[in-house]
Write a structure and sequence with these properties.
Length: about 210
């Protein structure tokens, strides 16, 4: 599994404001979207393309275009929804599927409560969006679900990751041949006793959309 930490001053700048507890929800949503657009540039380095013949006003030449089938973008609800616009701005022709997952705050295990995805993902390149890779349980379950449906190339895009989550993901994917890469804005220090990323940014879903309970 490849892990790419997007090292760019604009990414670090936007992440700092996301981390700041004084940042309100509207600003947090805007920053998450902007940050995703920057991460999308890194995350799509391996997007599948094919040669494309065109004529410029001067001569015939060969360019490239996105291959078919188009990539599938899968935000993990709720918080991954805050990254969707930033991603499809760069990949407007991508299809979008949804996975709803919630982490049990006591056991820290992820429960899948919704999925709206094509049944057959054979040969599909998939970009999974979730701002937080904490224990890695949600992302690991999501990736296995996609691989079971046939996805054959997966990029997980996160705003923040914990070393524990990366290690868990690596271990849980050890027996698969499907290439998986993680693109993240930063790898933080650790998880705390409640499974939150430290220093982190708190509960991403709550900061985007407010508390639900
Ligand atoms: C958060 C976050 C990830 C998950 C990460 O979602 O958006 O999906 O926790 O934790 P993990 O790596 O330990 O699995 P949450 O369950 O809070 O749901 P929400 O997006 O609806 O707020
Ligand atoms: N989920 C979040 O939203 N934040 C964390 O720090 C960990 C899991």
């Amino acid at each position: 599994m490849d892990v790419h930490v997007a090292d760019h001053p604009l990414i670090a700048h936007k992440l700092t404001y996301l981390r700041d507890k004084r940042t309100d929800s509207p600003t947090f949503r805007r920053l998450a979207e902007e940050l995703m657009t920057l991460l999308a540039y890194e995350a799509t380095r391996e997007v599948r393309v094919e040669p494309f013949q065109i004529e410029t006003p001067v001569t015939a030449t060969t360019g490239i275009k996105l291959s078919n089938p188009k990539p599938l973008v899968v935000p993990i609800l709720r918080a991954g929804l805050g990254m969707l616009e930033g991603m499809v701005r760069l990949l407007p022709s991508a299809e979008v599927g949804f996975l709803g997952m919630q982490r049990n705050e006591v056991t820290l295990e992820a429960v899948t409560y919704a999925n709206r995805l094509p049944d057959d993902l054979t040969g599909r390149q998939v970009f999974v969006l979730d701002p937080m890779l904490a224990t890695g349980g949600s992302m690991s379950d999501a990736i296995h679900f996609l691989i079971d449906r046939g996805a054959d190339d997966i990029t997980a895009v996160c705003l923040l990751a914990a070393p524990e989550g990366i290690a868990h993901l690596e271990e849980s994917l050890a027996s698969t041949n499907v290439p998986v890469r993680v693109v993240t804005g930063a790898v933080d220090e650790r998880l705390n006793e409640k499974g939150y990323i430290v220093p982190g940014l708190g509960d991403a879903g709550d900061r985007l959309y407010g508390t639900v309970d």
